[in-house]
Specification:
Order of helices and strands of chain D: HEHEHEHEEHEHEHEHEHEHHHEEEE
Chains: A mainly alpha, B alpha/beta, C alpha/beta, D alpha/beta, E mainly alpha
Shape of chain D: globular
Keywords (chain E): Amino-acid transport, Cell inner membrane, Cell membrane, Membrane, Transmembrane, Transmembrane helix, Transport
Strand order of the largest sheet of chain B: 6-7-8-3-9-10
Pfam families (chain E): BPD_transp_2
GO biological process, one term (chain E): L-isoleucine import across plasma membrane
CATH superfamily of the largest domain in chain B: P-loop containing nucleotide triphosphate hydrolases
Oligomer: heteropentamer
Helix content of chain B: 40-55%
Number of strands of chain D: 14
Strand order of the largest sheet of chain D: 7-6-8-9-10-13-14
Number of helices of chain B: 11
Shape of chain B: globular
GO molecular function (chain E): L-isoleucine transmembrane transporter activity; L-leucine transmembrane transporter activity; L-phenylalanine transmembrane transporter activity; L-valine transmembrane transporter activity
Radius of gyration of chain D: 23 Å
Strand content of chain D: 15-25%
InterPro entries (chain E): ABC_transp_permease, BCAA_transport_permease
CATH architecture of the largest domain in chain D: 3-Layer(aba) Sandwich
CATH class of the largest domain in chain B: Alpha Beta
Structural class of chain B: alpha/beta
Helix content of chain D: 40-55%
């Protein structure tokens, strides 16, 4: 087992090594590395056709690009959104699936059940309404302390699902079908068979969200969030309007959850309340914490793993959920901060430098 | 110079039957360093918390520049111009030193979510301002060499100073320091004394809660003594030092014991 | 020697709170540790009680090394503490709080009753409050309760962390009288105090702590007369 | 050192480009199947609804095994796509099935929910499907050419159940559902068909342990019969709790309840319950019964196994007829008209099997007994 | 008309609501105890309940060899036999749940407290080896053999890791709990005899009407559940208030640090707390099977969520709150179902919770295990 631990240390060292090399590069080199990475990501659907690599990444029982879109992209979007709420602002939300559902349902209602809007128009409306739901839920509940907030949000997620299930206007348990698909653009046809255009669209959404969150995180807003997470009272005494910023975190998180819902609804064309069970909220949270709560890239990695691994491990058939549960426990025992824990400042660089100095000295 | 900045008028504070402060009146004048001393548990920290809006007084009023603080929310008190440090250090431990100070500096900034996403010119300007001001403060406190270190990894002395820097960043009129010398050795205390005086020179009014007589007596313009929730003395350091009531309460009951 | 602390180092997270202190408490002695807030007094006390782990150095009790012993075993050996801030269980009655003192020792009902009698003899106020919840007591009563509770464990060494904190002068005097009385019954006392004058008067020997180091030691009177100590802790 | 990041990025890019090139060649050979043709099972084999899928797959396996035995040089494989009945997992599996040129037909999708999520894909790909179990009436209203049902939908079953209830002389029928797509749909149809004889008693939460609220309502309404739209586990609990609460109303339910699990869960309370199904009783075709028992260690075919066998037989017939492309097979199915083990198999435009046989079953002596067609 | 249903059937709804509420309350106690002592939502407590129902199932069908049906009817027992059987089944269920809770604590929580011991290391090592072996073969027996062989070296490595004593952040506990919850329920779903199917438990007690009150028949099983739950709760309260260990539990809940100073073995108290919660859940599980005669691998999930809601409703960390919250939730659900229809049951439950928390942010009775007194 020490072998495994050792291996693990190596892998993480490799990544941190990457980080340092990255910082050491000049601007031009850095941007080209980014560019190459982005292009490679957009080419992901073709990876299974590559020899060797394809063997490793391909999902045995299901279509790889569909998994990429329907599972991975959706989970990554959601992990990004939930990470704002849980990871950065430190608000425990166990009902995140509610916002995902709102996004999907608004799209469904506007483009199919009670309207005939194009998907592209439904998108902003759905995101805004999801944010409104965040606001509506957050205003009364954000005064509650951590664990109380958790159960209230959990209840909220259930209320959303059950309301959808019980109201004929929302399609009740039949759900809503014939949801409009995204319009064909840039030569991409959003049909039923080919998942690739959806993946490109979803990946673009992910990049946009990363861009926005990156800007938020390294601004007054992001600092306020982290300050609230670290010590809410101290933050307030340092002049942070904690309620306002908590509400913002909730609202932005809700918006991203809603966006994921819009994308999902547009892709599948059919939703019903059973697509939004309570267990999904828990899975979302697991993704964020597994990857590294508070670290955007950790959350992304968590989202990828939680979405992709069950498909990759289809051979385990009915044991994959069991394996998932055990892995969660093991991860939390041995790496409680997640796979990519949040990093603060440049201390790790300093530490390394210092240890090198030490070596020279001795 | 002698304008009253903070007026503590007949404040009583009770917690479930226990009286922590009993009709305390206290004034802090513009530009002075007021030392507040008293035995542990005498009510200094409660006094402090009432002042910074953590608790609302049971009776009496606290006003700052004539404005009643009771109605204000906690974060608004910072905006009015009161900043504080904490007895048991409460930094944002997962943020760098610089970010900690920037949170303080942000108190005076306006840009919010929209500005941050769009990177408006105002936001960029404010961001730059915050960063520069925070860096200056770190330099002022002599801890800028560890600006990029996570607060939790800073040495103790740095953490204490970082708290002061963070408080200063909110551009307070009144800076409240809660036992800033706790855990310092004499040399460090000496440095702290100088620092406090330097802060005052910059135009801040300082309220200093401290246990160490060396620190309090050396830097304070005026010293108030709390004991058992009551103010028992208020005056120049030399006078307070020789006040029999203070000696009895604070320095031990030496006279009736001997 | 009853208690021997040798080159003790203790960390709080990454911060070294105790940087190698040594001191002893003899059989039947009252020894005091004085120093400013943050000097490491409370950490020392908690380390002796075993709730902080020792990074380096050793603690011996009656010659037995207890550096790594679990807290409850130390209580069994006869080390009990009235912690800083009194540590009263707010939701328990005075009686139940006192019973917590016998938690480790157990003992039969008669023994407990005798101990209880003894505590009530020292602190008659507690008897009046016996069914009241700990959280509703005044500061002085809580301090009495904390000391009484520690006594219920029949300690050989009583650790008192800031017993005078937040008490009115009258009460402080009373508490120190009781400390002397307890000591006269053969219980050694290690006393941590900010009220240095009072503490040094009560104690046979004292140690001055500063940022995790012992900077001075000597008999109570010697330290009381030391000008540097007077300047730093006694207000000149 | 510095450049290694670039190098890794570049090599990944190159690899991907290779992939694009290879992938391109794949598309042109969509119809090229190397190896045996396959009939795919699509539905749950694991997860909470796994049992139903296993029944179906056994019927499919039997048909294919018989075919392979009879035609040694034209072997057919069975490919299973285990969706766990989950509409979220279904699309990636459906795409995989579509991408596999050897898959010529789908027996499934087993559930209505996943059907709604993926049938459009099969339609687009022209991959014919025959579902042996998804009975939601709405499914046939989408204009899907590839869609076929090997049994009648709930719009046939509901009125059938209602007429049986009426024929039994019941005057006041409490209608309960499990708030699922299937259960509520069926219960609504039954309720409409019953007209003023029906008393709506709302839904229950099938996952909950306690149904006393709805039972209290039934008791209060004084019903002489109860129709439950939902699955067997909940039906069993409901029947038992009703009996315990002293409700003596006759228990009716639909095909979701047609499982020994119902009898196990309800115990003696199941006795006399009447269930309807558009599926045929296991003994309706002795030949099939015997073949199934032989192939499955004496086990009786459970619900939908016979329908799956029929569905598979149609595909096999097409292949035997020399049809190899999906399009040809689809045409073959659309014009198919022959007797299956359960019924005459031919489909209308919408994909509904003609002839709307609804069978009634009764629980007697702890076993399910077919009691004939409902007129 | 449905508006009047609640009035016509009020007492009947009250009886059934109280019965279900009693079970909620017993399970809620587990959440409350652990929260009181560790400030941790023991998300896996629902599975402890589930394990208890399987304990009850095994006790009756395996240990007592009672068939599901005898000659086509329930295997009713009467008199002393019945009482002995029921007590036996309850004890076994409590044993299952109690052991389950303690194992859970040591494997999934204790290492996160920076306090992992050999037991946790061995179990975790076994699980690690087991899932790794699954990659290569998928045959339970072979997997177990491989896992057992690899356990020793892996647990050695794990022990070394535990020695570092790293404490995990709060969220990690929650995720570990979720993982454990998933794993326990799936393990039963995968490896029990009928897998994920519903299981029936033999019905020993004939569900006759015991007495009639307000025109409503009160069935004997409901009466047993309500009385049994109240008895267990009284026993627990007595234990917590009157015994030495119970005092330890209260002391740790109020002030863990001082408790340690006074010589309370906090790790032991935590084990006791989990065991108590487990025993209560086991009792609840037996009472549950007594009324509903069935269980399933996922039966804990919804019941757990409800019970946790009940605990919060009453004031988490407060024993009396758990009772109040449980009963209240059971009643509210029943009344609400009668008014709005069963499909709105959970919505009603959560709306009530929301409203209560709006006005009383720490639940009806407030938190604190220490203050819970009879």
């Amino acid at each position: 087992m020490s072998l495994v631990l050792n291996f693990w240390l190596r892998v993480t060292a490799l990544f941190s090594g990457f980080g340092e090399q990255f910082r050491a590069m000049n601007k031009w080199q850095r941007y080209s590395a980014y560019g190459l990475g982005v292009v490679a990501l957009y080419l992901l659907p073709y990876w299974p056709d590559v020899p060797v690599l394809g063997q490793i990444v391909n999902t045995p029982g299901s279509q790889f690009e569909t998994v990429l879109n329907d599972q991975v992209v959706i989970f990554v979007l959601i992990a990004l959104g939930l990470n704002v709420v849980v990871g950065i602002a430190g608000l425990l939300d166990l009902g995140y699936v509610g916002f995902y559902a709102v996004g999907a349902y608004v799209t469904a209602i506007l483009t199919s059940a009670h309207g005939n809007l194009p998907w592209l128009l439904a998108l902003p409306i759905a995101v805004v309404i999801s944010m409104l739901f965040g606001l509506i839920l957050g205003t009364p509940t954000l005064r509650l302390r951590g664990d109380y907030l958790a159960i209230v949000t959990l209840g909220f997620g259930e209320i959303i699902r059950l309301t959808a299930k019980n109201m004929d206007w929302l399609g009740a348990s039949r759900g809503i079908s014939n949801i409009k698909k995204p319009p064909s653009m840039f030569g991409l046809k959003f049909g039923v068979l080919d998942a690739k255009p959806y993946f490109y669209l979803g990946l673009t959404m992910v990049f946009i969200v990363i861009f926005i969150l990156h800007r938020l995180e390294y601004s007054r807003v992001g600092r306020a969030w982290v300050a609230i997470r670290e010590d809410e009272d101290a933050a307030e005494l340092m002049g942070v309007n904690t309620f306002k910023f908590k509400l913002w975190a909730f609202t932005i998180g809700a918006g991203i959850g809603g966006l994921a819902g819009v994308h999902y609804a547009g892709k599948v064309g059919f939703i019903n309340p059973d697509n939004f069970p309570l267990q999904l909220s828990i899975l979302f949270l697991a993704a964020v914490v597994l990857g590294g709560s508070g670290n955007m890239y950790g959350a992304i990695l968590g989202g990828i793993l939680v979405a992709y691994m069950p498909e990759r491990l289809r051979n385990f058939s009915d044991k994959r959920i069991l394996v998932f549960g055990i892995v969660l426990v093991l991860m939390m025992v041995f790496r409680p901060e997640g796979i990519l824990p949040k990093r603060v400042g440049n201390e790790h660089k300093k530490r390394r430098a210092r240890s090198q100095e030490g070596e020279v000295a001795s | 110079m002698s304008e009253v900045l903070l007026d503590f008028n007949n404040v009583t504070m009770q917690f479930g039957g226990v009286t922590a402060l009993n009709e305390v009146s206290l004034q802090i004048k513009q530009g002075e360093i007021l030392g507040l001393i008293g035995p542990n548990g005498a009510g200094k920290t409660t006094c402090f918390n009432v002042m910074t809006g953590v608790y609302a007084p049971t009776l009496g009023t606290v006003s700052f520049e004539g404005k009643n603080l009771a109605k204000l929310k906690r974060f608004e008190i910072t905006k009015v111009g009161i900043a504080r440090t904490f007895q048991n250090i409460r930094l944002f431990s997962e943020m760098t030193a610089l970010e900690n100070v920037m949170v303080g500096a942000d108190a005076r900034k306006k840009a919010s979510v929209g500005g941050a996403i769009l990177r408006t010119s105002r936001q960029r300007h404010e961001e730059k301002e915050s960063r520069e001001r925070s860096m200056e403060l770190l330099q002022f406190m002599g801890i800028s060499d560890r600006a990029e270190t996570a607060a939790r990894n800073l040495p103790y002395g740095y953490q204490r100073r970082l708290e002061i820097a963070r408080a200063l960043a909110t551009e307070p009129k009144l800076l409240c320091l809660d036992e800033p010398a706790a855990g310092f050795n004499p040399a460090e205390k000496e440095e702290l004394n100088e620092l406090i005086l330097k802060i005052r020179e910059q135009g801040y009014t300082v309220l200093l809660i401290e246990h160490d007589m060396n620190v309090v007596m050396k830097v304070s313009d005026r010293v108030a003594v709390l004991d058992f929730g009551q103010k028992i003395a208020d005056g120049l350091p030399a006078d307070v030092r020789n006040n029999p009531a203070v000696i009895a309460a604070y320095l031990g009951v030496e006279d009736n014991a001997s | 020697m009853l208690l021997e602390v040798n080159d003790l180092h203790v960390f709080y997270g990454r911060i070294e709170a105790i940087k190698g202190i040594s001191f002893t408490v003899g059989e039947g002695e009252i020894v005091t540790l004085i120093g400013a807030n943050g000097a490491g007094k409370t950490t020392t006390m908690r380390t002796i009680s075993g709730v902080r782990t020792v990074a380096q150095g050793s603690i011996k009790f009656e010659g037995q090394d207890i550096t790594k012993m679990a807290p409850h075993d130390r209580v069994k050996l006869g080390i009990c503490q009235a912690p800083e801030g009194r540590g009263i269980f707010p939701g328990m009655t005075v009686r139940e709080n006192l019973d917590m003192g016998t938690y480790v020792r157990g003992g039969n009902a008669a023994e407990k009753a005798a101990d209880l009698e003894h505590v009530f003899h020292l602190f008659p106020r507690l008897q009046e409050r016996i069914t009241q919840l700990g959280g509703t007591l005044s500061g002085g009563e809580q301090q009495m309760l904390a000391i009484g509770r520690a006594l219920m464990s029949r300690p050989r060494l009583l650790l008192l962390d800031e017993p005078s904190m937040g008490l009115a002068p009258m009460l402080i005097a009373q508490i120190f009288e009781i400390i002397k009385q307890i000591n006269s019954e053969g219980i050694s006392v290690l006393l941590v105090e900010q009220n240095a004058t009072q503490a040094l008067r009560t104690a046979r020997r004292g140690y001055v702590l500063e940022t995790g180091h012992v900077v001075k030691e000597g008999s109570g009177q010697l330290l009381l007369d030391d000008p540097a100590v007077r300047a730093a802790y006694l207000g000149g | 050192m510095k450049k290694s990041v670039l190098r890794v990025g570049a090599s990944m890019l190159v690899l991907s480009l290779v992939g694009v090139a290879c992938g391109g060649s794949d598309d042109s050979s969509a119809d090229a199947c190397e190896g045996n043709s396959k009939i795919a099972f699509f539905g749950a084999l694991t997860g909470e609804a796994g049992n139903l899928g296993i029944n179906i797959k056994k019927g499919l396996d039997l048909a294919v095994a018989q075919h392979n035995e009879a035609n040694p040089d034209a072997q057919i494989d069975v490919e299973a796509y285990d969706s766990q009945g989950d509409p979220d997992q279904a699309p990636a599996l459906a795409d995989k099935a579509i991408a596999d040129a050897c898959v010529k037909g789908i027996v499934g999708p087993a559930f209505s929910g996943e059907s709604a999520a993926v049938n459009a894909k099969f339609e687009e790909a022209g991959l014919p499907l025959i579902t042996p179990s998804a009975t939601n009436p709405d499914l046939s209203k989408n204009g899907w050419d590839v869609f076929h049902r090997a049994l009648a939908g709930d719009d046939k079953q509901g009125p059938g159940a209602a007429s049986r209830i009426v024929a039994d002389g019941k005057m006041k029928v409490g209608v309960i559902d499990d708030n699922s797509e299937y259960g509520k749909g069926l219960a609504d149809i039954v309720q409409t068909s019953l007209g003023d004889k029906a008393v709506e008693l709302n839904s229950l939460d099938p996952e909950a342990a306690d149904y006393s609220a709805v039972i209290t309502a039934a008791k209060d309404a004084g019903v002489d019969a109860v129709f439950f739209g939902g699955y067997y586990a909940a039906a069993g609990k409901l029947a038992k709790q009703m009996a315990d609460a002293g409700v003596t109303a006759q228990f009716y339910s639909g095909d979701g309840t047609l499982d020994v699990g119902f009898i196990e869960a309800a115990g003696p309370a199941a006795e006399g319950a009447i269930l309807t199904c558009t599926c045929a009783p296991k003994d309706s075709n002795p030949e099939f019964l015997k073949a199934f028992q032989d192939a499955n260690k004496g086990e009786d075919p459970a619900t939908y196994a016979a329908e799956a066998y029929d569905a598979a037989s149609v595909f096999l017939a097409a292949m035997k007829d020399g049809k190899t492309s999906r399009g040809d097979i689809l045409k073959f199915i659309n014009s198919y008209d022959a007797a299956g083990v359960t019924k005459q198999l031919n489909w209308d435009e919408a994909g509904e099997v003609t002839g709307s046989a609804v069978y009634a079953y009764e629980i007697k002596d702890g076993a399910i007994k077919g009691i004939g067609l409902i007129k | 008309m449905p508006d009047w249903l609640i009035i016509r059937t009020f007492w009947e709804l009250t009886v059934t609501g109280l019965a279900l509420g009693s079970i909620y309350a017993l399970v809620a106690l587990g959440y409350t105890l652990v929260y009181g002592v560790l400030r941790l939502i023991n998300f896996a407590h629902s599975e402890i309940f589930m394990v208890g129902t399987f304990g009850a199932l095994l006790a009756s069908s395996q240990f007592l060899s009672i068939p599901l049906l005898e000659d086509g009817n329930y295997p009713y027992r009467t008199g002393m036999t019945l009482i002995i059987f029921l007590v036996f089944i309850m004890l076994i269920a409590m044993l299952f749940s109690g052991i389950g809770a303690v194992v859970l604590e040591r494997v999934a929580y204790r290492p996160l407290r920076g306090n992992g011991d050999a037991f946790g290391a061995i179990v975790l090592a076994f699980l690690t080896a087991f899932i790794v072996s699954l990659v290569f073969v998928d045959q339970a027996k072979i997997n177990v053999i491989i896992a057992l062989l690899a356990t020793a070296p892996i647990s050695y490595a794990y022990m070394r890791f535990f020695k570092q004593g790293r404490k995990a952040p709060r969220l990690a506990f929650l995720i570990s709990a979720i993982g454990a919850s998933t794993a326990i329920s799936e393990a039963v779903g995968v490896w029990s005899k009928h897998g994920r199917d519903q299981y029936q438990t033999p019905r020993l007690l004939e569900k006759k009407t015991l007495f009639t009150m307000f025109g409503t028949d009160v069935r004997i099983d409901y009466a047993i559940v309500i009385v049994g739950a109240l008895l267990m709760m009284t026993a627990l309260t007595l234990f917590v208030n009157k015994t030495r260990l119970g005092r330890g539990v209260r002391a740790v809940a109020q002030d863990a640090e001082t408790s340690r100073i006074l010589g309370v073995n906090v790790d032991l108290i935590i084990i006791v707390t989990f065991a108590l919660g487990g025993v209560m859940a086991g009792g609840a599980a037996m009472l549950f099977t007594l009324v509903y005669d069935q269980t399933r691998f996922n039966i804990g999930f919804i019941l757990g969520v409800k019970s946790f809601t009940a605990a919060v409703l009453g004031g988490i960390g407060n024993l009396k709150g758990a009772l109040l919250g449980g009963l209240l939730l059971g009643l509210v659900e029943n009344y609400g179902s009668a008014i709005f229809g069963g499909q709105w049951k959970d919505v009603i439950a959560f709306v009530v919770l929301l409203v209560v928390l709006m006005f009383r942010p720490t639940g009806l009775l407030g938190e604190s295990l220490g203050k819970a007194r009879v």
